[in-house]
TrEMBL record:
The keyword Transmembrane helix applies. It comes from the Bacteria. This is Short-chain dehydrogenase. The keyword Transmembrane applies. Keywords: Membrane, Transmembrane, Transmembrane helix. Pfam families: NnrS (PF05940). InterPro entries: NnrS (IPR010266). The chain crosses the membrane at residues 20-43, 63-80, 92-108, 114-133, 145-167, 179-199, 219-236, 242-259, 271-292, 304-325, 337-355, 361-380.
Length: 396
């Protein structure tokens, strides 16, 4: 039976053998295309062509719900196989899920009517949550149930955006998108808290991993979920000193966690310093939001882009580079160009967050160019891996 199952898996085209393959490839391609289109739109090249809701609404929605969610789907569909010991989604069911994601992207970009767009967009996250939740439920793996809860909350945030879109309420759309960003921050904190200390210990051949502090992990997750709820309600979108508290606690919690994981040896290993730097943006972003709520920072967009570009972009790129190697049977030694890519995405975050006040006309284009170059380098070296069988001959 095991031999027949293996033969059946090997008969599937490599791209559709496991979730990370199509979704990592599609997400990275979308990261490249979406930012290129956004920069072109800002330069006035698409005066006639408008996606659903206009270019700003499209950019605001598609970076978390198009790019971010694609990578989340690829990671979780692959990780759940390791968590449960059960075969992950593959073949035609995986094709259907990927096609649903792609159809929603095209519907947004090409200006499809809402009667077509809304069902396509609204279906993906609940379906993903069902697939992940079913696998976890079958083995009663309760410690990973919070992952499903965050996926369902992301679906609720997307529903808020779609409601705002249908009503023509830009404020409601913004609440949903920004709530989603903090939910993604919660997921990054949850997953990062597990893998970064583990990868650090393994990558540096340390004798033991830093001992986890479950209360600290739960507290930071709770703070991230709280700021997401406050954002969805609109309360966090108006400067208020009391709202600064959960943001400050989130920043402090992530700073303590990052400090506990740190080892000077990470700077010798690109797959490690890239993860640590990305997680550092999860300190900068909520700290910046706390400053804004206290009236000490004038532009709330800056810490939000620290979250979007530095944390989400940086952590995604670092995780893609490592996970893709491991799951294609390759040694954990990325191409040397990936060190440049990791540096570029962080330079882009610095440009987008810290340069607008100094170089207002240069900051955004520079950030965009750094982002495009980083993901172009990734795709140049990794895209072929997703379309080829594992080098060790194993399925997956």
């Amino acid at each position: 039976m095991q031999l027949r199952d293996r033969k059946r898996e090997l008969a599937i085209a490599p791209l559709w053998r496991l979730g990370f393959r199509p979704f990592f490839l599609a997400g990275a391609l979308f990261a490249l295309i979406a930012i290129a289109l956004w920069l072109a739109a800002l330069a006035g090249h698409f005066a006639v062509w408008q996606p659903v809701g206009g270019w700003l609404a499209w950019h605001r929605h598609e970076m978390p719900f198009g790019f971010g969610v694609a990578i989340i789907a690829g990671f979780l569909l692959t990780a759940v196989q390791n968590w449960t010991g059960r075969a992950g989604l593959s073949g035609r069911p995986l094709m259907v899920l990927a096609a649903l994601w792609l159809a929603a992207r095209l519907a947004w970009l090409l200006g499809a009517p809402l009667v077509m767009l809304v069902p396509l967009q609204a279906a993906f996250l609940p379906l993903l949550a069902f697939v992940i939740g079913r696998s976890l439920w079958q083995v009663r793996q309760r410690n990973n149930y919070p992952v499903v809860a965050v996926l369902l909350l992301l679906g609720s945030a997307d529903a808020l955006v779609l409601t705002g879109l249908a009503l023509g309420d830009d404020g409601l759309q913004r609440q949903g998108v920004l709530a989603a960003m903090w939910l993604i921050a919660a997921l990054m904190g949850l997953i990062g808290g597990r893998v970064i200390p583990f990868f650090t210990q393994r990558g540096l051949s340390l004798t033991q991993q830093v001992k986890a502090l479950p209360w600290l992990d739960r507290a930071t997750l709770g703070c991230a979920l709280l700021v997401a709820v406050l954002t969805a309600s609109g309360l966090a979108l108006k400067a208020s000193p009391w709202v600064a508290l959960p943001f400050a606690c989130l920043a402090l919690g992530n700073a303590v966690r990052l400090g506990r994981w740190y080892d000077a040896g990470i700077w010798r290993v690109p797959l490690l310093w890239s993860l640590h730097l990305a997680f550092a943006w999860l300190v900068v972003a909520p700290f910046g939001q706390a400053l804004w709520h206290l009236g000490l920072l004038g532009n709330p967009s800056l810490p939000l882009h620290a979250l979007a570009v530095g944390a989400m972009g940086g952590l995604i790129l670092a995780m893609l580079a490592r996970v893709s190697l491991g799951h294609t049977g390759r040694p954990l030694s990325p191409p040397k160009a990936m060190g440049v890519a990791f540096a570029l995405v962080n330079c882009g975050a610095v440009a987008r967050v810290f340069l607008p006040g100094l170089l207002p006309n240069l900051a955004l284009p520079l950030a965009g160019i750094c982002w495009l170059a980083a993901f172009a380098l990734f795709l140049a070296h990794y895209a072929p891996m997703f379309c080829r069988a594992r080098v060790d001959g194993q399925p997956g």
